[in-house]
Amino acid sequence: MTGLLEDIKALKQLRDAQGDKWDNINAEHAARLRRQNRFQTGLDIARYTAAIMRNDMAAYDADSARYTQSLGCWHGFIGQQKMISIKKHFGDTQGRYLYLSGWMVAALRSEFGPLPDQSMHEKTSVADLIEELYTFLRQADAWELNHLFRDLDDAQQAGDDARAESLIRQIDAHQTHVVPIIADIDAGFGNAEATYLLAKKFIEAGACCIQLENQVSDEKQCGHQDGKVTVPHADFIAKINAVRYAFIELGVDDGVIVARTDSLGAGLTQKIAVTDEPGDLGDQYNSFLDGDEIESAAEIANGDVVIKQNGKLVKPKRLASGLYQFKPGTGEDRVVLDCITSLQNGADLLWIETEKPHVGQIAGMVNRIREVCPDAKLVYNNSPSFNWTLNFRQQVFDAWQEEGKDVSAYDRADLMSERYDDTPLGQLADQWTANFQRDAAREAGVFHHLITLPTYHTAALSTDNLARGYFGEDGMLAYVAGVQREEIRQGIATVKHQDMAGSNIGDDHKEFFHGDAALKAGGKDNTMNQFG
């Protein structure tokens, strides 16, 4: 990207080439507008962010301490404020992404109203949210640069050349708020063609990374609910192919595919896999089916299905729904086969949906996968569906018990109790929780840690706290002390909400367009000035 001064020079030449027709166009103003709108299309964003993700994946392969993170965002404003906060507190956005959760789209963005995570929401609403998120991130760029441009104007008017040169360097080195989004396409919302068409919408909106799961599309369940139904590997591979074709067609050749397996908690399948010979992929899938061995045709009832499994005739157990059961206790083996198969057929990253956050459990599966695919890496859901406090307190309790320590002061079934908060067990559990991402990145191959729906919970919690005070005895003090005062003291930019919404940008544009005749909103009577 060229520097601001080079852009101004080039645009002045462009203006002058038009004769006097463009005399009203200020080359510096035009250069500022261009810089505030770095990405022209969603495909520009997808290509830019795909390169970031690929570089981050290579960095993680070299050093597992360089894992990446994200939070799920259900609105463009939430994603924008998250990235503004990251830049404010950490200086840059390196290794920090956005996650787009199908769960939150269903619960918060569907025209049907709140829905469970079962792929019942409008399929295009996810692509619409990708576009919305990037619109807000691009606006954050414009907002931040606009403040730098205003500071530059002040420095130049004051004749402070050193300050002006410093600001130009900051403008030239400006880091965008645009970061990769890992976008949840559920089970593809239909067949492979439907998956391909929807993937194109995602990519055109800016997605460089698409997460696809191996559940049956029309039976899809949240990964933390019961009743999950998986598909044979051939069906899932077809959808991986569909997503890859979409990336290639749109020129995002290094787009990233996350293959999610729900097999650890899924005990059902809709189909018996096609198999041509013993030991092939379909036969391996069918080997997990639960059933009863039979010795004669007389044991076959009307409507029964019979397969050959490990050289024997077996009648798979079929439910009234028509679904088939897997053998109990086979979930982990199926996960390992799923992951190896996905990586061998075009997936870049894995997602293993687990029932608890346990580094040892995750590592046990990943180590088996890495015996075949040494560079296997995970995207892991640090899910709010887990009771993190109870899980880690129980993990510490169990570890201590195995070590022979006295745990008689603790009731394992009641470890959620506040009375354990300041105990050695409670404090160690909190330490394990704080270290979970670092430990899982180092020991269990987790490249990316995300929380699917944290901002769903933060919105509810903060609204509850405000409502309790505002409609209670505190009245207006609940907002002033709990929100506005904290915004001011913590330097939260939204305290100047008019500015965050684009008021100052609009004023500057009016000056570009109208010159001295511009009627601006940011004068002395704007109450935003009360915040300094």
Automatic annotation (TrEMBL):
Lyase is among the record's keywords: yes
Q: Per the record's keyword annotation, is Metal-binding included, yes or no? A: yes
| Gene3D superfamilies in the record | Phosphoenolpyruvate-binding domains
Q: Which CDD domains match?
A: ICL_PEPM
Residues spanning the signal sequence: none
Q: Which reaction does it catalyse?
A: D-threo-isocitrate = glyoxylate + succinate
* Name under which the protein is recorded: Isocitrate lyase
Q: Which organism is it from?
A: Halomonas cibimaris
